[in-house]
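stuck on whats below:

***
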Amino acid sequence: YVYLLARAAFLDQSMCALETARSLGLSTWAAFRRVALPMARPAIVTGVSLALMETLADYGTVQYFGVNTFTTGIFRTWFGLGDSAAAAQLAAMLMLFVFALVMLERGSRRQARFHHTSQRYQPLPRFELTGMRALAACAVCATPLLFGFLVPAGQLTSWAIQTAGHTVNAEFAILAANSIGLAATAAVCVLLLALVMAYGRRIRGARPLVRFAVNLAGMGYAIPGVVVAIGVMIPLASLDNALDAWLRATFGLSTGLLLSGTLFALIFAYAVRVLAVSLHAVEAGLSKINPAMDDAARSLGRAPAAVLREIHMPIMRGTLLSALLLVFVDVMKELPSTLVMRPFDFNTLAVRAFELASDERLADSASAALTIVLAGIVPVILLSRSITRARAGDHA
């Protein structure tokens, strides 16, 4: 989160500000500290806020290491003590912290906005490091990659090879099919919803109700998965119980669970959780399309839906694919919502990896975990390449 957003912010900075700072006598380090870093502060604060929100929402890691957090407390209260009301109260307390982070992030962006005074860009200069500086830079860059990815991925690969004989079987194929099918369905549904909302904001953005609805829908990513699950499960369960009671009293029929405990409820929870990811990507893509194209198409008699389908979607093909991949990976690795909302006898790779790790069968969990990791690498590579290509000076 922090690296990608900060990298994009630094690449997007104009050389004019940096050259002005150097012409006023600032050294390279002073220009970075007093000019470039403050200009990138909104993006850095946004990345830190997202990282903090993900930490608050995490369940699998803290549960495995036995750390008591809000998320583990919510699960323990609901499933261990059977007290859904107390679990909802804990979820509400957690929401206060989340909204405080959201307000802090938005306040920081509101008070720190920077705009380019010129449309002229130049390629960013590269400084060649030698000696100890080069070694120090390599060490700083390699350390998080080594300990954060290469070592864990290498260990997972080793375990996966050792245990492939009894873990990669028909059950694993079913888990993979469940995960891929669920993630693909949720990704398509979320992308269609994001398209409708983003385009509605584009053509009806002046209406306060439309802006409020889109902004509210975009805050779902800040809400931990377990809180989303509780917020979806309790109303759906109440609706199921009310419908079942009415049909029993009126027709003597029992409907059971029509909504809660079904794949529909699970996909709905996913949509609430990850809609912001797709929505922000689609809005960014739409913002690059000149509104004059909309006006020209409408003047030729095209309806708004036809304009979206025939003009905007073909232009935004790459953006839509990126949004689809991001949502797909988020759903693939989502654990808290899946644990709470999944139907009976329905498992995914994330749930299976968590169950095996909880039983201290770490080697057996490697195949499922490695599959999720490999699925998550593709969007990261695509995003990194997209950020690099977006640097205006490289195309001047």
The CA atoms of residues 355 and 365 lie 8 Å apart.
